[in-house]
Predict the structure.
Amino acid sequence: MYRIAIPTKGRSHLIAKQTIGFLVKNKIDISKVDIFVGSKEEADDYKKVLSEIYKNPYIIHEQKDLMSIVNYIHDYYKNKTDVKWLLRLDDDIINIIDKNNRGIQGLDKFIKKMFKITEENSLSLWGINAYDNPFFFKDTITTNLKYIVGCLNGWVIRRDRFDLITWSSHYEDIIMTCEAFIRDGGVVRNNGYGIITKYFGPGGMNCSKEEVEQRKKDSLEIGLEVASRYGDMVRLVKKKDMYDIRLNHNYKV
């Protein structure tokens, strides 16, 4: 009923231990998973590690940056498959936790529930909290303008609506959240769950350590462009070593 897309780069041992391990532990059928890599050579490297677990073909995207990879994945499923529900995961997911700091129970049921809620509201994008502090979790499912983090998000593929693309690698998930909100009138977030992962780790969707550092340097320039394009939807804030974007939860289309 749904597919799981996992883009990855140079982290075959990590994906086996973390995201794939997380899915196996939670009894998700690995035949639902598609692993995206940049080249045939990289696919061969992953096969050496994952051959006993992952049996599907590797999808080679030949893209060089996060923006292009994200757009490739969306185009691939919309135009080259009949997939209706798509869950996108990073390769370093450790766990999903609830407000009691317990690991999620019934992951497959949870995923299907979130897709059904999204579809019933005629929306496309859903997610959970981007952080792992249960103190801030709430037992609510909302459709206002809230951040849908890039490392775990679900998409109802709308072939009857115009394509959504990200125009930057930096803030790509902020951009996709805003674009989905503008097109559909809302995004769905389950505020009772959060994700345990390591942000800005080398490899995977963030590519090299040098590119991660460049993203930090670009945070002001691209942040200003995000603020210019999306106006009252966002505000640019200064953090310790970079800038960040905050969303206006009260914004209405």
Remarks:
- The mean pLDDT is 95.
- DSSP finds seven helices and eleven strands in the chain.
